[in-house]
Amino acid sequence: MKPRDRLRIAMQKSGRLTEPALDVLKRCGLTFRQSRDKLFCFGEGEPVDLLLVRDDDIPGLIAQGVCDLGIVGRNVLDEFKGVAGDAAAALTEWRPLGFGRCRLSIAVPQDVDYTVPKDLDGLRIATSYPGLLGQWLRRNEVDAAVVTLAGSVEIAPKLGTADAICDLVQSGGTLVANQLRETDVLLQSEAVLAGPDTLPTDERGDMIELLLKRLDGVIQVRESRLLLLQTSRTSLDAVTRLLPGGPQPTLLPVAGQPDQLMLQALCAGEVSWRQLEEIKKAGAREMFVLPVEKMLA
Ligand code: PRP
Ligand code: ZN
């Protein structure tokens, strides 16, 4: 295979991860010529192209070296690593991306008695995740039959093809609609940036490193707010104590008001009205909460 000089990222063609994945790439400065109906999207600014595929295919494409990176659910990545064994051992989760949160859980019909995993002994469990379910069953020494289905797992108990299921749960709506009760969580999942353990030693490796740095900025920024306020020097301690977590605030003098200070603090996470009101009570005024657009440490 001729070595590529452009980076190739695999992501889900259409599904829950598609829009947020494109959004995160865009925030990293990556935009693509629009050909969303196609398999391949050419990157405009940077030498990075997209391959739009079925999410289940993403880990395999990275393992084979067809793609350098992939945006995929941890559930899909871990299932692949469990099933593919050695071939997949060199695949790593480079960054959690904070969207597409869901969990892989066992659920049983609402009228079934269940207290401990051992209660599943001798039952049939339908799932699209035979690898992860198999691991969990072994770990809990449960002797159950795994019924592997490609989709519509939740209706298996009603159809009589299984007694319980092991499936993804996000809102829980699907379980409720099918009179199922969640009993055990096997895996907490979210979208991750996956790639090989070791970076390529050519320009693609450099590009991945650059991308990871931008991504760290994007993730940090998404959760950051800049808080600006004025306080008197005497209230400074009380105000500072109430600031939501983050690095040390910056203090600036206020022209013509030697007893006043301008305080600037980077906060990790939302700053609520309630927090602002508390800080104001401690002596702050002229308060602003600003979103952060870009950050480069
Ligand atoms: C997943 C999963 C459940 C549903 C759970 O299916 O298999 O059916 O989402 O979400 P909820 O808890 O918010 O109801 P998905 O929509 O990905 O389709 P698929 O089953 O065809 O993969
Ligand atoms: Zn799915």
UniProtKB/TrEMBL annotation:
Single GO MF descriptor: ATP phosphoribosyltransferase activity
Taken from the record, one Pfam family name reads HisG_C
Q: Can the keyword Cell division be found in this entry's annotation?
A: no
Hey, which pathway is this one from? Amino-acid biosynthesis; L-histidine biosynthesis; L-histidine from 5-phospho-alpha-D-ribose 1-diphosphate: step 1/9
Matching entries from SUPFAM superfamilies are given as: GlnB-like, Periplasmic binding protein-like II
User: What UniProt keywords apply to this chain's record, in alphabetical order?
Assistant: Amino-acid biosynthesis, ATP-binding, Cytoplasm, Glycosyltransferase, Histidine biosynthesis, Magnesium, Metal-binding, Nucleotide-binding, Transferase
For this protein, what reaction is catalysed? 1-(5-phospho-beta-D-ribosyl)-ATP + diphosphate = 5-phospho-alpha-D-ribose 1-diphosphate + ATP
Domain ATP phosphoribosyltransferase catalytic: from-to ranges: 54-216
Q: Where in the cell is it found?
A: Cytoplasm
- Segments forming a coiled coil: none
Q: Which PANTHER family match?
A: ATP PHOSPHORIBOSYLTRANSFERASE, ATP PHOSPHORIBOSYLTRANSFERASE ATP-PRTASE
Q: Name the family the entry cites.
A: Belongs to the ATP phosphoribosyltransferase family. Long subfamily.
Question: Protein name, please?
Answer: ATP phosphoribosyltransferase
